[in-house]
């Protein structure tokens, strides 16, 4: 008996995702282990892997099988969702002509390379030509995918990072934040000025002890070192594969707090990956749902859990013990003030929980306007500075601290930025629902028992893979689609009381 | 203008070799970095990569292009050799039916798994059934490839490790050694008994200092850490890719000598890889010639160079300095006696330079007889013990120290063993020719200047890639095909004077 079209697609996508996983390990190696002389060869290896994956997706037989499997019907919920996700990957791969893919790839490399110098020298003019070329191509991509997906050009770009994401929904949630944040920030700064200043523990903090502390807290959170590693890289990330999750950090011997919270953030990503549905390993429906939900899991662990007074009640003695230290700086209350300090700044990656959304909203407004054509690349620096002034009351002195600070656009990634704040908002909404559903979660956190929380997350988020849209998953888990209510309530509770 | 068939083949094989390199990095990661829980997923990733490579080779278009490129003719020496090497890879991939490939792969896994237990429990009977199945399949493989390659079944297996290797030539060289070694070993043992006993330097030798010493000597030999790494694995190897060569070792804190010489051995492999012809990167003709020649480069560095009195004159003070040690055990003469100590034993991987060939010849005799059908798997233990008695005068008490000690056959690798000793013999012949051609080589080694030696090796071996057969390369480099003369002369000089 011959195999069904759907079963043949499963085999095809299993191979595709194995090659994707192979590439993920090579990326991790690039960032952590590779000597610099290996870069060109590695880049060629990754390009070859990408070409093979692209070849599997764009093979006419894949399209035929998708059509046949769709016509056949009769699939249960998981296989049906799997077929839907296969089709999404196929659409993104086949919507573009080979010429456009090639031109885009060349423009990305050229622009990203020029950006490195432009940022170092704060010289926007030197990268503008590359950015204009790249933006024109990305707008072509958006137009092409828009037709196939039946959504607006910007939403077609967004779909790659945030499947089924819609800018009208994002607009509504972000508008709620824009209305709330400026005044709230003023209140927070006043409130903070009345509180005792946070004292920074005094170092040095040797790397091996920082690492041991990080490992201890990762293990407490349930990170399984039989299926993962912790290493060092210039830019921290969570990589590797579901069965071998590799997170990275970088250490500063004069300040352990930033590396530690970074590790706990990446641990949130890792816990999501590890708890994805085992029965759907290696299939598109078994993958994490999207960047927004992924970020919700890292921010739930970092912001909702690990920067809370409860968690620090548990962790403060372990921190002091790790460095053989004692004194007022190591008390829970002080560490809590330290880990919730608010300080508006120009740089997104240094931003605190309260001001971070403003950085994202600025970028989201600008990038949607660039895709519609309302904002030209040449006008970016001025528009950036205006928007930063409006939302944060700060204006950069130079473009390195302004529109040159992030790599995303210069690498061709329009549609990624909003997922950071969608994640922060979803984290608050999910944590709120979790703690309402199970009263054991908060007391557990305060004594280092995360099982109640992780059980709820596994049931309501992790084990769903890509079965549902993010919207449907949130409705099932929290009773409503995404809104900023829980996030605002969380901020008020944490920063004004 | 359309591309020539040859040019299209270059593109196809470039992708093939990039995927091969990607797999090499994943293998390295498996042995050095991967948490144990990642094994199944990694194995699936590697299988997917292998399947894609196999698909590229067995694609009917590859065969058509090979035929068209051959018919076209008119290629210069390097492209012509490249086409020849493409064809070799194609023959090995296409000679077997898919059913046979599948059955072989299953039998290999089953036998290798059973062997792990059988060796641990010294229970040959428990693995015999698997070995019989596997051997029958390997004989089928040999018969199939024999037809296509036009050589004997054993030589068809050998060709995968030692391209164009012929057992009649190996027989002649090995016979020379069999005639020489037993009596010579007796003389060596008598001579050694009259010399002062080698004193082992006293440890402990901290791992970080062993590593620093290894790195220092690797750098002296020209290992480029911008294009390579040194890490730890259970079984030392040289892996990675030409532009990112990764060697491994394991450390014993009570004895630094074995790890250090292992590192220098792998450095010999690495230097070969790094000096392969840059113009032919990513093409079959740009690859190292074969396992025998590869082993000749590691053994040339380890045996001919690093265990010599000259090298130890240079290295002994560095060793003492590395561990902050002094005294008679750290003098050059003592270290030389230590590094050239001969002690017949049952285990190949522990064998010294004098007795190693006997271990290989035993295996070569037995494996050729298994392929012709003259030796049945069931009779292996008895035949093994007889042969060890004849050649080394030692008989194992159990099969774990006998025919179960090596993984090769249980993993389906018949035709690999002779390359170890072909390498040792070629190393002696090449080093003899090099030092005769350039009188600066030996004095250079004694003061840590390896440029003259490496220049000769680059010109005469490394830069040739796979342009020539091993035989032609040796004739060009040393004036004659492989014979045991230089190896015997080297042994006499080192062990009897």
Please describe what this structure looks like.
The structure is a homodimer of 497-residue chains. Chain A has 497 residues and is mostly helical. Chain A has two domains: 1-94; 114-203 and 288-497, Neurolysin, domain 3 (Orthogonal Bundle), CATH 1.10.1370. Chain A is built from 20 helices and three strands. Chain A has helices spanning 5-32, 39-58, 60-72, 77-94, 98-120, 124-149, 153-161, 167-194, 207-220, 257-274, 291-306, 309-322, 332-339, 356-372, 380-392, 418-437, 441-446, 451-460, 470-478, 485-496, and strands at 228-232, 238-241, 244-249. In chain A, strands 1-3-2 form a three-stranded mixed sheet, with helices on both faces. In chain A, a hairpin with a 2-residue loop joins strand 2 and strand 3. In chain A, helix 5 runs antiparallel to helix 6 (124-149), helix 6 crosses helix 7 (153-161) and helix 8 packs parallel to helix 20 (485-496). The longest helix of chain A is centred in the first third of the chain and has 28 residues, at 5-32. Chain A is globular and about 70 Å long. Chain A starts with a helix and ends with a helix. Chains A and B meet through helix 1 and helix 2 of A and helix 1 and helix 2 of B.
């Amino acid at each position: 008996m011959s195999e069904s079209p759907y079963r043949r697609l499963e085999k095809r996508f299993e191979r595709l995702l194995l090659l994707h996983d192979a590439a993920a390990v090579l990326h991790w190696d690039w960032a952590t282990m590779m000597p610099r002389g290996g870069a060109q060869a590695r880049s060629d290896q990754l390009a070859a892997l990408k070409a093979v994956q692209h070849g599997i997706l764009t093979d006419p037989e894949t399209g035929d099988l998708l059509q046949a499997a769709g016509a056949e019907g009769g699939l249960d919920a998981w296989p049906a969702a799997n077929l839907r996700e296969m089709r999404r990957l196929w659409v993104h791969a086949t919507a573009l002509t080979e010429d456009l893919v090639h031109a885009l790839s060349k423009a990305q490399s050229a622009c990203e390379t020029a950006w490195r110098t432009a940022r170092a020298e704060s010289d926007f003019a030197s990268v503008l030509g590359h950015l204009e070329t790249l933006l024109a191509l990305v707008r072509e991509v958006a137009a092409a995918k828009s037709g196939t997906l039946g959504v607006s050009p910007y939403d077609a770009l967004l779909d790659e990072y945030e499947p089924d994401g819609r800018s009208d929904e994002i607009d509504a949630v972000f508008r709620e934040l824009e209305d709330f944040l400026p005044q709230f920030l003023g209140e927070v700064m006043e409130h903070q000025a009345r509180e005792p200043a946070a004292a920074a523990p005094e170092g040095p903090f040797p790397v091996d002890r920082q690492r041991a502390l990080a490992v201890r807290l990762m293990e407490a959170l349930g990170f399984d070192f039989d299926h993962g590693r912790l290493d060092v890289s210039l830019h921290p990330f969570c990589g590797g594969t579901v069965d071998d999750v590799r997170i990275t950090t970088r250490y500063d011997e004069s300040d352990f707090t930033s590396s530690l919270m970074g590790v706990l953030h990446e641990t949130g990503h890792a816990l999501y990956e590890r708890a994805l549905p085992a029965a759907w390993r290696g299939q598109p429906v078994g993958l994490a749902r999207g960047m927004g939900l992924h970020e919700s899991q890292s921010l739930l662990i970092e912001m909702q859990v690990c920067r809370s007074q409860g968690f620090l009640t548990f962790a403060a003695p372990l921190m002091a013990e790790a460095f053989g230290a004692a004194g007022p700086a190591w008390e829970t209350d002080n560490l809590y003030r330290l880990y919730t300090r608010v300080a508006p700044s120009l740089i997104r990656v240094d931003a605190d929980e309260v001001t971070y959304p403003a950085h994202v909203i600025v970028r989201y407004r600008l990038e949607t306007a660039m895709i519609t054509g309302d904002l030209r690349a040449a006008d970016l620096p001025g528009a950036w500075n205006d928007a930063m002034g409006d939302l944060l009351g700060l204006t950069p002195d130079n473009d390195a601290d302004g529109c040159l600070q992030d790599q995303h656009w210069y690498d061709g990634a329009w549609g990624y930025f909003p997922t950071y704040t969608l994640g922060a908002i979803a984290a608050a909404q999910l944590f709120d629902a979790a703690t309402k559903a199970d009263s054991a979660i908060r007391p557990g956190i305060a004594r280092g028992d995360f099982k109640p929380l992780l059980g709820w997350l596994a049931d309501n988020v992790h084990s769903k893979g890509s079965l549902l849209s993010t919207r449907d998953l949130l409705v099932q888990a929290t009773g409503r689609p995404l809104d900023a209510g829980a996030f605002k309530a969380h901020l008020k509770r944490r920063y004004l009381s």
